[in-house]
Amino acid sequence: MPAGVSVSGNMTSPCYADPAAADCQAFQRAEADWQLDLTSLCLAMPFMTSCTMWAECQPLQKAVDEATGLSKATNTLCSYQSLVASVCVEMPRMKGCEAWKALCVAKGSAVKQCTQNPPLPAMVPAEGIDVTPAGANNTTPMWTYDVKEAVDTICANEPGMEACANCTEAGRMFKNCPNPLETLSKLCAAKPDMAECAPLQEMCGEADVAKLWPELCAGKLVVPPFKPVFRSINITDPCYVDPTADACKTFARAHMEWMSDMTSLCNAMPFMVGCTLLADCKELIDTKNPATNKSMAFGTYCGMPSMVGSVCVDMGKMKGCEAYNALCKAEGTQVAGCKNPGVPSTLYTYNTYGVKDDVDAICATPEADQEALPEVPAQCANLTALCAEDKVAEVYNQVCIGDNASANATMGPAVPAPAPEAAPMASAAATAALVPAATLLLAVVAQLLLA
């Protein structure tokens, strides 16, 4: 079973431990938290049935009911919680399902939010919801692997069907079949009498489904690439208003929230210097210090406040920089994460466009295509200065030795946040290479430096 991207956050309410308590009836997990869970799940496995269905829910989720001030998707099958439930009933061991299982699957749960936002009926097996190992073999025809099998069967029997070009790899393989449900819907729109289409037609025969997913049910859904871009979330603490207060010396923005910001920034502009450095930091970020149970990147230039800062000192007006700007750019800030260790001083002036200028200048020289690389001290001066800073080379070691092998590294395990400005649906490639362009920029300069 896939590990997923990130565990559910903000689970401190007593209702997560005892959802059967009477006072938990009115408990509401925040929509933003459900959205974090859903985005995390769909970053990990974008080909899942419910992640494909998320695409068509976007307009409704973004629309606001003037009477309530809530999303028009609230308490519908398009709500973030219902879509999380629809993923987790199928893949309960994934990271991102913890909150739903704690609140909604626990025996005797009194949380009304769970009954108001159930999983899609077509995703619930005949045996009911069972997230224990005993339910591991339960399934429905609309579960992801079953949908993929239906597509494989149709395309084996009818290889000339146009939609089969979107799914060219049989079995539980999704690199060349990024959205099996989208493909199945197109196949069934073309030949609705095929036996493999009956489950989809049954699902679309339900009034709520037909209303919420008309494009899917008509075989017209086109799933856009998954590149969510968000503003910073959870910036309500007084330290975001006045980070110079003494009380802010102990304030720490959650690691998950910094990661959310970084993912958003690098989805928007993956070629930025900070996003290349992120690839270099991935191993350190993903490794826990057994003594502290924190990431080994904590307190280094690979720590998430420093990573976000490496982008936001360059591109401070981008969505995702709001938290960094509020906490760390204020003169006299007391927030330790902003200064421990902060951002390498070179990056305040050596920005993405400067790196690109250096690469352009090097590649324009007559010797650029020769095996023996030319000496270009002027273009390498900024990178030399960056790597000479204290404690920089020890964490940005691939960039600083000119061998960034992390060209295809991603935050992968990064956690997106609410309010995506772009439709958060995915091709499988969307999570495969977050930073290749930026890697090339610094890698070229670094290789020339060490030639």
Briefly summarize what is shown.
Helices cover 41% and strands 0% of the residues. It is mainly alpha-helical and 451 residues long.
Describe this structure in words.
Keywords: Membrane, Transmembrane, Transmembrane helix. The chain crosses the membrane at residues 428-450. Helix content is 41%, strand content 0%. The protein is mainly α and 451 residues long. The longest helix is centred in the last third of the chain and has 15 residues, at 436-450. The chain is globular and about 70 Å long. Residues 404-441 and 444-451 have low confidence and may be disordered.
Secondary structure layout plus pairing:
Blueprint: H1 31-44, H2 49-62, H3 80-88, H4 98-105, H5 112-116, H6 144-157, H7 180-190, H8 198-204, H9 207-212, H10 214-217, H11 255-268, H12 273-286, H13 304-312, H14 322-328, H15 336-339, H16 352-363, H17 377-388, H18 397-400, H19 436-450
Keywords: Membrane, Transmembrane, Transmembrane helix
Radius of gyration: 24 Å
Task: List low-pLDDT spans.
Answer: 404-441, 444-451
Proportion of strand residues: under 5%
What is the helix content?
40-55%
The major beta sheet can be summarized as:
none
> How do the helices and strands follow one another from N- to C-terminus?
HHHHHHHHHHHHHHHHHHH
**Mean model confidence by pLDDT:** 84
Keywords: Membrane, Transmembrane, Transmembrane helix
